Structure to design on (1197 residues):
């Protein structure tokens, strides 16, 4: 079994995902796939890519579902990836130490050289965030783009995960959720960001922002138009234009 | 713990070019490592996408590497449709194409039908068709959005999507109509995010609650094809409650222009004009003046007697009379649209409240065309956007017109917070181009005097013969579709097969999957392509198809010209075509080869110019007969001049690259584009940013840049006079007369003021037999047919279901996952359902263009796209049911837009067990050299920390 860092990381890098503006377009999922296929976890193998049952490794998947009934219900677009939990059972369950949580920033990673592909971690993760690469025989997962976020060969503004950089609806934010003054922490505070399934006790770092409240259309004032019919209307027009 | 390299080199080369995974034309940065494409991302500097990129764009690399890429020219060697081809060299392919085309041109150029699909080089392809001399040219707009383009251009001189955009930064109330997750993709998403962050209200009118509608503050589930009735009810409410911007109407629209009021005469409903032809207005005292005379305050209400004794009254009086009528009241609209009258009234009140009580200003002084100085721009912060759900109905033109009229009544056109023109629009209403190919204009070996596509002003501009019959193969610009500004691609194969109005010798198609999803009646279309005459010859004698991929249509070609991918060629995103400018200023862009093709393929545009030179087409050869553009499309992009100083690209013109808009060709132009990230943009001066239709600074700028001929005002056309000219003909006036059977329809549907009428298919079928509407939405992650070959996107959308309202389905005894038969007047399909809450009760829908024919696109014939995907196209006919009258088109009667959203169906639980969707057409055989590869796809292993690279490092 694998130990967590001796003291909980002060820096807690993670994502804040805004369910108010996510339109479920899958841009984040594909940008993630593209970046990571050639990056830290290369490749993200696709089996039977042009066949009857294409399946591949994706670190980020978007689910669309409905909540509530009829017109008052909502269509929810819900991106799902590793939440980089403070209490990651996927790490503690790992028999080889391949899964680990970084002391520096809390990112949960897998060392492919020591992963034996036993899949215990994917059984332990309640969020379904682990992705087994059957062809390689190792477990893979979201790295928060560990090869982008501190990459000194990139301009500073681009040192964010690929999913954040590409999101057209600006529904994804990246930062240090361990720092209450960070932009992401403030966003969570302002918008009532929440944990996914907090009752399980894994203390996810990633947060979701709920949809903003939707104000009903105001009811129009009582009808006050004094004159009806075309001639009354045209008379009003002339009065307005002659002012 | 492992040792990590946190700063690996991403790439050794980055090239900026333009995406082609949909119609947005976003800027992309392509990262190369070891000469291979490693990564594609949005270009942060690009005006369209500002760094973001959608799922399609990020998956572009899988289209570029697709095993469905054609590899070499192909010549058919077996029966059509069976996929028996031999690979041939380019010399042979071009000789063959040249021989067929030369023969047609020498005989009669209209024996060539040249149609392109989602072609982004229409400035070239249209020019080529004109030089060839055939009127039979168009792209896919007749299928897509010609109703939006035509309604917008005749009304505002701009349009939703292509030639205009909502002011997402400033609007306080945004209404979106019928956007099926489609155009435009990234700008809408980025705009909605900015709008919602400001707390502005977003209302989506759409029968389906997915995508954008899912994040709307207000979802208005309108019945398909009834949006026009809803909009007219909103207009009624604005009139009834007197919430109308009278000053705006008076100053900037033709609402005060006088209409001749002489029922039964040939000029009834035309503008009263002075001796010089200028439309007239009356002042409050009843004196008549030219509309643009200095110092005149036109009345909106004063009816007058003209010098010749005829009565005339302002357009506005006709508007008031019509829209105050209780026929347009919300209570009536409720029964049609399914939207409660109280809700319609609330929406109208909110539109008026925001427009008139939450006015915003931009404090820049400006001067209008009359010379009147205004201290600031006044904004009515209500913005609209609309797209295919409005467009693809037989009443789509008028519905879109109704929306534009609503904008005018609110004074919400090109002001801060409203819908704004994308530069280089506005253009005159409509642009001053009339379609070429009138009687006598098509002659052997002769170019057309004008482009094949344009904007008719009346019956004289129609392309019809003395008997009123169509002169174009698709019958565009005939009495069936007088304003068919994008042509009618959906009728080409059917008409060429039927020899109606005449047969063609060569059907030449470019990236238009017309044997499958770009056809209505897909199975019938395939049969037409293979049908033979009594002597065994094909009804459509010769088919040339150019595409990059082994689509369904390849199997039906006699000659296949393989194109490159979008990362292997030059392109111009041109102001002459479909520009990418914004409200802040014009912009254009290029594509240029990021990598060289690894196959024996050529860019289609190079091939087209090569064929043009071989044919000796004007503009494509020098006086000595040698090719004018030996350097292919790149040479053309730089050196072609459409008018002196005006070419495909507006940036870095002039010998030293110092000019914009107009200037002599610059040999270094493409290099300057590449240095600048693949695009050029220019910001308008602050005083020219709004009210462009009347803004002197803007109009002078536009004339100097060559966007408009003269710096003259563009008057918003609340009343579209050309429509009345067609109606008067239908009433029996004038030389050119429509066929008898179309008269009543022309009078009813070509109304010069917006009207709503029920979609034709619904009116012609038994409502009890076909009680449901069936429409499609485009998945944001896969919006064109060419996505299905994409190894990543097909994992997101590999199959589709028929989505049904839960209550409606349960009443029919249909449960989630059941298989059902869907039947229209034309056909039947068998599919699997998914029930949902967020769909209007009488509507069923599915994702567009997921279903593929088995064997196409280098997919395994057992691919889910073929076995569990499906198209609604099988249910849609080119013609209306016979009850509507023989041979009536399933199209908008104004523009000929294919009315594929008018589809009416019934859904019944299927008996027996089903494992696959139907009908299943026989599998296609892959062309030579095309095969679905077996084994896993390990894209990226060469670039990243893959097992092999880790082993190498150890």
């Amino acid at each position: 079994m694998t130990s967590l860092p001796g003291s909980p990381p002060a820096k807690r890098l993670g994502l804040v995902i805004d369910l108010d503006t996510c339109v479920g377009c899958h841009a984040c999922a594909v940008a993630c796939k593209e970046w990571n296929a050639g990056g830290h976890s290369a490749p993200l193998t696709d089996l039977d890519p042009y066949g009857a049952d294409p399946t591949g490794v994706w670190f980020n998947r978007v689910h669309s579902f409905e909540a509530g009934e009829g017109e008052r219900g909502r269509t929810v677009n819900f991106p799902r990836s590793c939440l980089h939990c403070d209490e990651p059972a996927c790490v503690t369950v790992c028999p080889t130490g391949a899964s680990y949580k970084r002391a520096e920033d809390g990112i949960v990673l897998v060392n492919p050289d020591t992963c034996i592909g036993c899949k215990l971690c994917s059984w332990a993760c309640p969020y379904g965030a682990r992705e087994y690469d059957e062809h390689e025989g190792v477990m893979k997962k979201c790295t928060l783009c560990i090869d982008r976020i501190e990459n000194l060969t990139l301009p500073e503004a681009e040192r964010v995960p690929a999913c954040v950089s590409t999101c057209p609806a600006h529904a994804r934010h990246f930062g240090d959720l361990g720092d209450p003054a960070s932009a992401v922490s403030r966003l969570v505070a302002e918008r009532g960001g929440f944990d996914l399934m907090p009752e399980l006790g894994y203390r996810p770092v990633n947060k979701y922002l709920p949809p903003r409240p939707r104000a009903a259309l105001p009811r129009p004032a009582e009808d006050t138009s004094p004159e009806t019919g075309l001639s009354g209307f045209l008379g009003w027009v002339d009065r307005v234009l002659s002012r | 713990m492992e040792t990590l390299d946190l700063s690996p080199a991403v790439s050794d080369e980055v090239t900026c070019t333009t995406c082609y995974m949909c119609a947005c034309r976003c800027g992309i940065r392509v990262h190369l490592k070891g000469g291979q494409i490693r990564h594609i991302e949005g270009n942060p500097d690009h005006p369209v996408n500002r760094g973001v990129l959608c799922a399609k764009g990020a998956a572009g690399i899988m289209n570029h590497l697709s095993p469905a890429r054609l590899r070499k020219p192909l010549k058919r060697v077996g029966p059509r449709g069976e996929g028996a081809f031999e690979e041939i060299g380019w010399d042979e392919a071009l000789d063959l194409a040249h021989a067929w085309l030369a023969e047609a041109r020498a005989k009669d150029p209209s024996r060539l039908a040249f149609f392109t699909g989602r072609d982004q080089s229409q400035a070239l392809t249209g020019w080529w068709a004109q030089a060839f001399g055939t009127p039979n040219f168009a792209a896919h707009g007749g299928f897509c959005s010609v109703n939006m383009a035509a309604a917008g251009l005749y009304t505002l001189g701009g349009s939703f999507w292509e030639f205009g955009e909502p002011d997402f930064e400033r609007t306080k109330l945004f209404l979106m109509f019928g956007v099926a997750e489609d155009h435009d993709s990234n700008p809408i998403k980025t705009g909605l995010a900015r709008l919602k962050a400001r707390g502005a209200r977003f209302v989506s009118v759409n029968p389906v609650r997915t995508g954008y509608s899912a994040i709307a503050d207000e979802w208005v589930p309108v019945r398909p094809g009834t949006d026009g009735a809803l909009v007219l009810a909103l207009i009624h409410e604005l009139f009834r409650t007197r919430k109308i911007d009278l000053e705006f109407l008076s100053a900037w629209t033709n609402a005060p222009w006088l209409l001749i009021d002489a029922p039964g005469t040939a000029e009834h409903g035309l503008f009263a004009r002075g001796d010089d032809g200028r439309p007239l207005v009356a002042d409050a005292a009843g004196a008549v003046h030219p509309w643009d005379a200095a110092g005149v305050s036109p009345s909106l209400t004063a009816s007058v007697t003209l010098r010749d004794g005829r009565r005339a009254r302002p357009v506005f009086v006709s508007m008031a009379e019509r829209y105050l009528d209780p026929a347009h009241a919300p209570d009536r609209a409720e029964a049609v649209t399914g939207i409660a009258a109280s809700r319609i009234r609330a929406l109208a009140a909110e539109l008026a409240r925001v427009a008139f009580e939450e006015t915003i200003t931009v404090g820049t002084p400006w001067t209008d065309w009359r010379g009147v100085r205004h201290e600031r721009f006044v904004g009515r912060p209500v913005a609209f956007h609309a797209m295919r759900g409005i467009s693809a109905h037989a009443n789509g033109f008028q519905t879109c017109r109704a929306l534009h009229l609503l904008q005018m009544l609110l004074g919400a056109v090109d002001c801060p917070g409203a819908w704004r023109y994308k530069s280089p629009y506005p253009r005159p209403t409509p642009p001053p181009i009339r379609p070429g190919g009138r009687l006598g204009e098509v002659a052997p070996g002769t170019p057309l005097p004008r482009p094949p596509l344009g904007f008719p002003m009346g019956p004289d501009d129609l392309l019809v013969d003395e008997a009123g019959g169509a002169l174009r193969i698709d019958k565009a610009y005939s009495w069936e579709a007088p304003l068919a500004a994008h042509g009618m691609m959906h009728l080409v194969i059917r008409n060429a097969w039927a020899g109606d109005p005449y047969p063609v010798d060569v059907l030449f198609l470019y990236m238009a999957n017309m044997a499958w999803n770009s056809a209505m009646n897909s199975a019938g279309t395939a049969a037409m392509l293979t049908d033979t005459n009594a002597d065994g010859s094909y009804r459509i004698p010769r088919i040339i198809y150019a595409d990059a991929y082994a689509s369904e249509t390849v199997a039906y070609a006699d000659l296949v010209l393989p194109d490159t991918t979008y990362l292997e060629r030059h392109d111009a995103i041109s102001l002459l075509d479909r520009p990418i400018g914004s409200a802040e200023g014009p912009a254009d862009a290029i594509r240029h080869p990021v990598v060289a093709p690894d196959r024996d393929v050529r860019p289609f545009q190079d091939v087209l110019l090569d064929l043009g030179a071989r044919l000796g087409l004007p503009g494509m050869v020098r006086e000595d007969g040698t090719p004018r553009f030996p350097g292919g499309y790149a040479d053309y992009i730089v050196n072609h001049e459409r008018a002196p100083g005006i070419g495909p690209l507006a940036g870095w013109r002039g010998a030293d690259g110092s000019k914009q808009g107009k200037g002599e060709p610059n040999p270094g132009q493409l290099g300057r584009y590449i240095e600048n990230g693949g695009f050029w943009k220019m910001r308008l001066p602050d005083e020219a940013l709004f009210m462009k239709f009347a803004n002197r600074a803007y109009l002078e700028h536009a004339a100097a840049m060559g966007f408009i001929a003269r710096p003259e005002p563009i008057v918003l056309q609340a009343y579209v006079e050309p429509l009345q000219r067609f109606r008067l003909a239908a009433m029996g006036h004038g030389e050119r007369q429509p066929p008898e059977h179309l008269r009543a329809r022309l009078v009813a549907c070509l109304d010069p003021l917006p009207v709503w009428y029920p979609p034709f298919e619904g009116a012609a079928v038994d409502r009890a037999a076909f009680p449901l509407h069936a429409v499609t939405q485009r998945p944001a992650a896969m919006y064109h047919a060419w996505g299905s070959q994409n190894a990543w996107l097909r994992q997101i959308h590999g199959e589709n279901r028929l989505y049904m309202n839960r209550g409606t389905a349960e009443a029919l005894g249909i449960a989630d996952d059941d298989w059902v038969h869907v039947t229209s007047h034309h056909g039947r399909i068998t599919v699997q359902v998914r029930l949902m809450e967020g769909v209007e009760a009488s509507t069923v829908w599915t994702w567009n263009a997921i279903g593929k024919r088995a064997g196409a696109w280098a997919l395994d014939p057992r691919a889910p796209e073929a076995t569990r995907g499906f198209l609604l196209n099988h249910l849609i006919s080119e013609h209306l049911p016979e009850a509507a009258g023989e041979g009536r088109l399933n199209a908008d009667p104004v523009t000929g837009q294919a009315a594929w959203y008018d589809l009416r169906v019934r859904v019944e639980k299927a008996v027996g067990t089903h494992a696959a969707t139907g009908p299943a057409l026989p599998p296609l055989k892959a062309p030579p050299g095309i095969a679905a590869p077996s084994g896993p796809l390990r894209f990226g292993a060469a670039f990243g920390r893959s097992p092999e690279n880790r082993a190498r490092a150890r």
